[in-house]
Amino acid sequence: MTNSIADITDADLLLVIGSNTTEAHPVIALQMKAAVRRHGAQLLLLDPRDIELSNFATLHLRQRPGTDVALINAMAHVILTEKLADEAFIQQRTENFEAYAASVADWTPERASFITGVPPEDIVRAARMYAGAKNASIFWAMGITQHTTGTDNVKALSNLALITGNVGRPGTGLNPLRGQNNVQGACDMGGLPNVFPAYQPVADEGNRRKFAEAWGVPYERLSPRPGLTVTEIMNGALHGDIHAIFVVGENPMLSDPDLNHVVEALRAVDFLVVQDIFPNETAQMADVVLPAGSFAEKSGTFTNTERCVQLVRPFLPLPGEARADWDIVTDLANRMGAGWQYDNPAAIFDEMATVTPSYAGISHQRLEAGGIQWPCPTPDHPGTPILHTERFTRGLGFLAPVDYRPPAEEPDEEYPLILSTGRILFHWHGGTMSRRSPGLDAIAPESLVELNPEDAAELGIADGDHVCVSSRRGEVAAKATVTTRSPRGTIFMTFHYAEAAANLLTIGAVDPTAKIPEYKVCAVRVQKLQPEAAAVA
Prior knowledge:
The protein is an alpha/beta fold.
């Protein structure tokens, strides 16, 4: 997030797109509700489903899944043609405006309406609302990024903020809501295949020399070539290029797309290690399982969605043979001859801070007094609640033209419906922890297929019927819930349930830049199961 959770209530308008915030980020949703109900903000919701936030929205646009770029470009078209843009901000703090303006010149609301299904007059109203607000902030989550056009979606939103000057002040900004509690921290620490910690590219020779010296390894050992993403690793295992996989705190056997492909890959790999706190579906396929500690049993830091680094302290002792993650990894490294010497996570953090400029002024000792938002370059720096107040990291903000591209797989006669996947409030990700909670599992015990009443009527399906959902990759059986929450032509499923794994259906196509799979759009068909088939399912 460029801004802080606390300044959500400073916004005059909240644009929420691709985020079922009340279910996936309920604490942040409370701030959004407060901004609307207590502080008079308007909420502009762009989401295909009729989620709870629609009850707080001044305007709700229900675009077809996978058409976000067309919708955002049309809003930008209205802002520019009606001269609602912040010309001073554009001139002083951005570049490439002429090329960008030309790229949206043909994106009329009428053209976008044909693609998105949103009425032209609603697109115009949304554009005027956003551009007319004194302080407008944009929030998105995986409904924007989990597409083959995810990078373009984010660029389009960035363009919208730049042409209206909604960056660098309280109540403004571009605010991606991270999918798990330490996704931001994992990325900050180099948990991406193309960068060292603090997003320092591996391709840069200076970066490689700096890290080689800090880590005490030969410069030649640090490759300039980016590593592989999760989907590329699975492909590599299946083709015999990857011989060992080490999975830490993840369950690809439930969370990766096209699960039949994942099963084949994990069966093909020579050696699979899983380090986790419960024996999940991936661990059941592993050659070795290393029992790790949970967040409540270890010390360290989490960096949350607003870039706030927070100290984690153990509340419980490690059970049985479980060990802290850093202890397991250090032991493994030393058995391979690394010679690492760490007494505790604080020492690891101190070493990391010496090569990570945005964390350079942070330490466990400082964090005892409370969280600090990076960048924090020196020990006396207070942290940075708002980014880009005077300039962007690259200097000028780049207005990047993006054009609409359809999803990798669209409905046809054989598979006439769109499947979109996501979360519900009561379960978390692959359910490894939440489905072991009797209370939560009692509230939401099974996977449901959300089906629009008009589609259900055409298919002869009633609420509570057992149905089979199939795609070109697999099929699952689950119970139908007939509701207007999903628009006609679209069904919705969660991916929490191994017994009805939605990712058996999803497509392995990825964004060409970010390599994120297209979980939000694939073509499926739904058929009612006869009672005898439902009993077997």
